[in-house]
Write a structure and sequence with these properties.
Layout: H1 3-9, E1 11-14, H2 24-35, E2 38-39, E3 49-58, E4 67-68, E5 72-73, E6 79-83, E7 96-99, H3 103-106, H4 109-121, E8 133-144, E9 165-173, E10 177-179, E11 181-185, E12 202-207, E13 214-218, E14 223-226, E15 229-231, E16 240-251
Antiparallel strand pairs: 1-13, 2-3, 3-4, 3-8, 5-6, 6-7, 8-16, 9-13, 9-16, 10-15, 11-12, 11-14
The protein binds fe (ii) ion.
């Protein structure tokens, strides 16, 4: 992957370096975390979305792997991480507290390699003092039990995330599945549903199939959308799920 493509097009669909060589135990560690995800309490009732979140900072002058931020304990003793999308997700306008990523997955070699490579592909205005860069890591799983029970992403239309860069890495996609197709659009179709989006405003469409197959968006330049996942055959016993690691980066600022 070359940096100019992302800078010029605002997105790129690619295979990360770590996909060429990794330990199967580390991939199993990521899959195990997905098996343990809690239901996303912010998803619609009956929603088939599961999620954990972790966040940290990278000191660009020091190293590229970053430092995880401390986990918050809820009143009931659960491990949580705060996530604030500002006004960029009309579905959720205040801070959400997601279940925290486990300690073991936070040191997973594949995850660390992804954070490091992803950060190396970002670019920042260099005016004045360098500050830490914030990163957020979402483990998101969608499931579907049949054609009448799709797994739907949030929000369910073209949108921008707010963070300048978001990387999406496929960890697992069940065979028995339709949908989960990614679309990249111009920013003019932000807040537009796929059915209403003019075709000439859709810049790319693709589906992630391979383990660790990835795409990235430079958020100010493009909008994005992923279609619901649907189990093809509800009589099939096998679970139908799509497991994605999302890694986003945003600047930190000094507030006076
Ligand atoms: Fe998004």
């Amino acid at each position: 992957m070359s940096r100019p493509v992302l800078a010029e097009d605002g997105y790129e669909h690619y295979m990360p370096r770590v996909s060429e060589s990794y330990r199967v135990e580390d991939l199993a560690g990521l899959r195990q975390e997905f098996d343990r995800l809690e239901r996303d309490e912010y998803a619609p009732v009956g929603g088939r979305r599961f999620r954990r979140y972790g966040n940290g900072v990278i000191l660009p002058w020091e190293n590229k792997t970053g430092h995880w931020l401390p986990i918050v304990e809820s009143d009931t003793g659960e491990r949580r991480t705060g996530y604030d999308q500002g006004s960029n997700n009309p579905d959720h306008l205040s801070v959400r507290y997601f279940h925290a990523l486990s300690e073991s997955v936070r040191s997973n070699a594949i995850l660390r390699a992804l954070i490091e490579e992803d950060f190396s592909l970002t670019f920042w205005p260099r005016d004045g003092q360098q500050l830490p860069v914030y990163f957020g890591v979402h483990f998101v799983k969608l499931t579907s039990s049949g054609p009448s029970d799709p797994g739907v992403s949030s929000p369910d239309y073209f949108h921008q995330d707010g963070e300048p860069f978001t990387f999406a890495h496929l960890i697992h996609r069940s065979q028995n599945m339709m949908g989960g197709e990614n679309f990249i659009g111009t920013t003019s179709i932000r807040n537009t549903r796929l059915e209403e989006a003019p075709v000439d405003q859709i810049l790319a469409r693709f589906t992630l199939f391979e383990t660790l197959e990835s795409f990235v968006v430079h958020d100010p330049k493009v909008s994005h959308y992923v279609s619901p996942i649907i189990k093809r055959d509800d009589k099939c016993e096998e679970a139908t799920e799509r497991c994605i690691v999302l890694i986003d980066f945003s600047p930190t600022v000094q507030r006076l």
